[in-house]
Structure formats: C-alpha cells, structure tokens
Amino acid sequence: MAAAVVSSAGHLTRSSLETVIWLVVSIAIFFTLFRFTVRLYALRKLLADDIAVAAALGLLLSLAIMYKYAIPPMFEVVAVAEGREAFTTALLGRAAVYLKLQFAIIVLFWSTIWTVKVSFLTFYRSLFARLPEHMRGWWLAVGFAVVTYLLCWGFQLGSCVPIPNYFILGACETPRDIRYSNASLYVAAAGDIASDLMIMALGLRPLQKLQINRREKVALGAMFSVGFIKILFAVVRVVKIGGMSATHVNPIWLALWSMIEASVAVVVACLPSFRVLFAHGRRQSELQKAVSLKSVRKRHIRSHDRDATRPLEGEEPFSSTRDRISSIGDIYWHDTEMSDELIAPGSPRRG
After folding, report:
1. Distance (Å, rounded) from C-alpha 269 to C-alpha 265?
2. What is the pTM of this model?
3. Which tens digits make up the pLDDT trace of 125-136?
C-alpha cells in the first residue's frame, strides 16, 4: 500500500468515520431483520436467497469489525504521508498490521458485493426452474459474475509485485504499482455495474409475457430495477475516491464509500422481499372475493334450482378464480408461482 495519497481527508475525523460505518451497518441489519420477518410472516420459512443475504450481512459485519482495528493506524499512515506528522520507526510495525487488514478488507468488500449478487441469482434460479429459455441468460449472468469477481482478485494481486511488498509501508510506490492499484478500482467497479445490469435484465426480460395488468407490470419492473440504487452508489464511490495516475487513492475516503456501498447493497437485496406484504394482502382479498362469489352462486342456485356446475352469466367459475389467485404473480409467495405466471399461453412446461 502506498504512503502517498491523493488528497487530505478534509474534515473527516476518525470518530466521524467510525460513526458513519456503524450507522450504515445498523441500517443494513435493520433491513435484513425486517426481510426475514416478512418472509417468516408470509412464507413461514426462509429460502435460499435469504441465506445469501444473511451471508452478505455477515461479511459486512466482518468488514466493519476489521475497519475498527484498521482505522487508527490508517489515520496515522495518512497523516505521515501528507506531512502532518513525523515518521517514526515505530510506525512500521503498526503500518504492517494495517496493510494486512487493508488487503483483507478489500477482499471482504468484493465478497460482500458479489454475495448480494448471489442472492438475486439464487432467487432467479428458483424463478426460472420451469423456464429453460430464461436459464440460458441466467447461466450467462452467473458466468459473468464469476469472471468479474476473479478479475478483481487478479488486479488486486497484481497491484504490487512481488506480493509481499504489499505489506511493507512505501514498497508499492512504483508508477507501475500505482497504475495497477488505481486500475483495480475502476475494473472492479465496471465489473460490478455490468453484472448488476445483467442480473436486472433477467427479471425485466420476461415481463412482456407476464399476464397481469399494466399497473402490476410497472410495480414488478420497479422491483426488478432496485439494482439501479446500488449502481448509483457504485458510481459515486468511484467518482469520490478515484485515483489520479501518479498517486494512490486516499484510504480514508475509500473506507467511507466502500462501507456505504456495501451497506446499500445489502439493503437493496432486502427491498424486493417487501412486496410479499402487498402480495399477502392482495391474496387474502382475492380469496375473500372468490369465496363471496361462490356463496352468491350457491344462493342463486338454491333460488332457481340451477345446475351447480354452471356459472352465472359474466361470472368466472370458482376454480378459474382460484387458479387466477394462485398464479397472479405474487413474487416470493411461492418458488414456482412466478414461473407459472411467466409462461405464455401455449408455451411448453417442464415437469
């Protein structure tokens, strides 16, 4: 890690950085717990994508804990690099610990971001289980996510050669090391954004086949587009901490915006699950309406001595109403209901 940095951290103090870190982590914890509560309320169980979100939250907490120990020596290293404090030999030992933590922090940051992608991909996997034509796009998104994650590792390992120099203060100051270090920031961000766009396209592409009204299509489109929130913060992170060609980025700003983006990613992963509250209420309303229609039909039959199997004029058969309820596109209500909704009339089904 370089001793030189791009600029001062301004008025961002150690205490303010720690406060922001734990604030955004607390928000992510709240949304995750709320997601689990919603799932258990509506489904009485947690699904595979919930496990992925829990893993992402665990990585985020590990990231915050590592920063707790990395922040003190990090501020000291930056102060010495900017000439605000004198260099002492005692700093070398503390800097070595900080640089090891910083290496692990970068890896944890990527892992948190990509685990959130896993949560979305896991959801789409269950969604497309009976839609083989969409599984091809799913595998493409999975492959691209794996490649970009490995690419992040490659640029990180190549940002300082030989690798042991990474953990020695001032040993990664060659122009080549600085270029690779800064390039890793942009490559990781580009891969992150591109994979998010591919994952969002998985949900948006089948909407044209969804047999629901325009209002519900807009609602589903918005749900599948929540990734744009994360993309926005990814762009802001790069803009705020992007390094110049001759200097390394400021690790203090890197810490701030990395924790904000990682926390936002976990929150974004939780947002689509809130739709189940709407779906649950609507499902109850549809069911009550169907039961009411059946009761009316029974009374009509008793009054006019009609055949019980014949529907009233303009009335849906009860079985048809029930089928419409079970396939109305209640995302997260059941693993296969969205799959049934996405299959166009006359399309072949599997299983």
Report:
1. 6
2. 0.77
3. 888 877 777 888
Are 247 and 81 spatial neighbours (Cβ–Cβ below 8 Å)? no
Residue whose entry in the numeric block shows the structure tokens 């969205």: 338
Q: What DSSP designation does 212 have?
A: S
* Alpha helix ranges (H) inside 82-131: 90-127
Three-class SS state of 70: helix
Structure tokens belonging to residue 315: 């009335």
Report yes or no: 255 and 21 within 8 Å, Cβ to Cβ.
yes
In the predicted structure, residue 44 carries a pLDDT above the cut 70: yes
The token pair that represents 125 in the structure block: 């996997």
Give the span between the Cα atoms of 201 and 219, in whole angstroms: 15
What's residue 121's pLDDT? 94
Measured CA to CA, the distance from residue 291 to residue 263 in angstroms comes to 44
Residue 166 in tokens: 């990474």
CA–CA gap between residue 200 and residue 123 (Å, rounded): 12
Higher pLDDT, 167 or 223: 167
Residue-wise burial string across 108-139, b where 16 or more C-beta atoms lie within 10 A, e elsewhere: bbbbbbbbbbbbbbbbbbbbbebbeebeebbe
